[in-house]
Amino acid sequence: MSSWISHSVSSHKAQLITTAVVSGAFFSCAILTFQSIRRRQRVEDLKASIPSISDEHLATKLTEFGAASEVFAPSKEDEHSRALAIRAQQGDYDDELILEQLARNRVFLNDEGLSALRSSFIVVIGLGGVGSHACAALARSGVSNIRLIDFDQVTLSSLNRHAVATLADVGTPKVHTLRRRLEQVAPWVHFDCCNEMLTAQSVERLLGSLPDGRKPDFVIDAIDNIETKVDLLHYCHKNDIPVISSMGAGCKSDPTRIFIGDISASTDDPLSRSVRRRLRLLGVADGVPVVFSSEKFVPGKAKLLPLPDDEFEKGKVGELGVMPDFRVRILPVLGTMPAMFGLTIANHVILEITGYPHEYIASKGREKLYEGVHGGLLGYEQKLARHWGFDQEGLRMPLSAADVGYLIEEVFRGKSVVSGLHTKLALVRWRPPPADFVDTSIPGQKVTKLNIQDVVCMTRDEVAVHEKEVLKPGKNPEDYYDASIVALVKRRHAEEAEFAKFRY
């Protein structure tokens, strides 16, 4: 060992390498030390450049909104209202005054109902046009504990539909705008403001109990972002938390078409369709009450505006959103419609909490239609089984009546892929079945191998022709139908496959 070291030291090449390594390490340390000293010096220079507080350089405190106090300085009325609210929320407020203010509700709901409403805890998520009106109505009606959740601020364009925001509120968080304005109406209401965006990771915390242990009596979903909406509704459904969700109020103008119903019944709204599909992939097909409009789009009515081409050409469209993956297109909204959605939601919550009798008119009753189409589809499968030599007695299929409704309404938009007709609809296989399309592997059971993407929607007359010309002869649909029909079926199946990716 010692001889190797002696040899290495005596080697001229080894000496050069050692010198280079030591020199490199020395200069690296010197450079890093110099940079550290310069950085500290710059920080000190920056600190020294900040003027001291004086009449010339007057420092002011930040407001609760995080802005300079002189920008959003509270008025004398705001200060008085805030002081009154603090006292009222601590119990320093005559209960007789509250009951007098709520006298009309008290007569309508009776003492027991009003007491239930006053002791309730409501969570409102999304405080735009829909959520702000729902929240304002609940506060005015006697709800004493309201949690407000929204990450956004009031903008000028908010003022056409927001319940309480004024020009003075532009640039302030929506949660504080609502709290500040509604404290002037009902100072005894306890507002828990959460100025943040609800996510799948934060939903459990944001829907948590009050300090006294009370859990939410109702959750109002007024979110317009699909991802967040689905996360919230799935969590509430899974944890048995009462919830009502607002579907899209944008591009709607007919107040007579606003309904309350199950999410499985909401129609004619892209937001409804997307939410239903994703919830269904999470195992939630129904059981979520929603407010929606059945108004159909016709030429001449407002529609979702496309993003200008020059924004796409910039290459980073996502940067236009206020949050990652948030919508960036302009949504036309008639200011009255979100208010009607919000007030409808508040009305539902009040009736549910107080136990007041209510029975809503259904927007449509198509359950019998789905059951009939389901039976017809099974009949077509039995015919094919018999045609291909299988015993069709007792044959079953994996698709349910709910699946049939999903296929008709969501996948095929309630019309035939062949003619576009909306009446006398049926479902049938698109392609001839494989040789082993009847599964007999389970003793005593015969099940046809049929999934959602095997099926198309046609009229009953078109199904008869389809059976005769395509299914029984074993032909490809491409050999019989026009390319436009084949392309439409392919597009509908591709859309369904895309939604299936969200299955957890």
Automatic annotation (TrEMBL):
Q: Does the keyword Plastid apply?
A: no
Query: Which SUPFAM superfamilies does the entry link to?
Result: Activating enzymes of the ubiquitin-like proteins (SSF69572)
* Gene Ontology biological process: cyclic threonylcarbamoyladenosine biosynthetic process
Q: Where are the transmembrane segments?
A: 14-34
Q: Where is the THIF-type NAD/FAD binding fold domain?
A: 104-362
Q: How does it sit in the membrane?
A: Multi-pass membrane protein
In terms of Pfam families, this protein maps to: ThiF
Q: Which GO terms describe its molecular function?
A: ATP binding; tRNA threonylcarbamoyladenosine dehydratase; ubiquitin-like modifier activating enzyme activity
Q: Which InterPro entries match?
A: ThiF/MoeB/HesA, ThiF_NAD_FAD-bd, Ubiquitin-activating_enz
**According to its UniProt record, where is this protein mainly located?**
mitochondrion
Which terms are listed as keywords in the entry?
A: ATP-binding, Ligase, Membrane, Mitochondrion, Mitochondrion outer membrane, Nucleotide-binding, Transmembrane, Transmembrane helix
Cellular compartment(s): Mitochondrion outer membrane
What family is this protein classified in?
Belongs to the HesA/MoeB/ThiF family.
Function noted in UniProt: Catalyzes the ATP-dependent dehydration of threonylcarbamoyladenosine at position 37 (t(6)A37) to form cyclic t(6)A37 (ct(6)A37) in tRNAs that read codons beginning with adenine.
Q: Under which name does UniProt file this protein?
A: THIF-type NAD/FAD binding fold domain-containing protein
Protein's organism: Eremomyces bilateralis CBS 781.70
